[in-house]
Amino acid sequence: MHAIPDKDQWTIIFSKNSTSWGSFSYDEKEDALRVTVKPHPAESFEVLTYVFDDIKPDSARQLLRWEKLAFRSTFPWTESRGIEEHQE
């Protein structure tokens, strides 16, 4: 996962490359999914944490918490196409 933070929203990028460490070798051609999210202040949480809940046959919701920020996003998918690009 990579992130492009901006003042009001972030672009979260999920990569097809699962072997690289960090964003040092980031290559846009390896993007699997980009999601635009709006982080909000949250209780401090030291460890980067992902929680997937509200899992349905056609979607799931993700909560990401890190430091004093959090955001939720919904990932819709279809069996034939996989995860689709989505903005929350």
What does this structure look like?
With 88 residues, the protein is mostly beta strands. It contains no helices and seven strands. The strands form two sheets. A four-stranded mixed sheet has the order 1-2-3-7, with no helix packed on it. Strand 1 and strand 2 (10-15) form a beta hairpin. The model has no long low-confidence stretch (mean pLDDT 84).
Range of helix content: under 10%
Uncertain regions: pLDDT < 50 for 5+ in a row? none
Structural class estimated from helices and strands: mainly beta
Q: Please, what is the average pLDDT?
A: 84
Order of strands in the sheet with the most strands?
1-2-3-7
N-to-C order of helices and strands: EEEEEEE
> What is the number of helices?
0
Strand content: over 45%
Dominant shape? globular
Question: Brief description of this entry?
Answer:
The chain is built from no helices and seven strands. By secondary structure, the chain is mainly β. The chain is globular, with a radius of gyration of 13 Å.
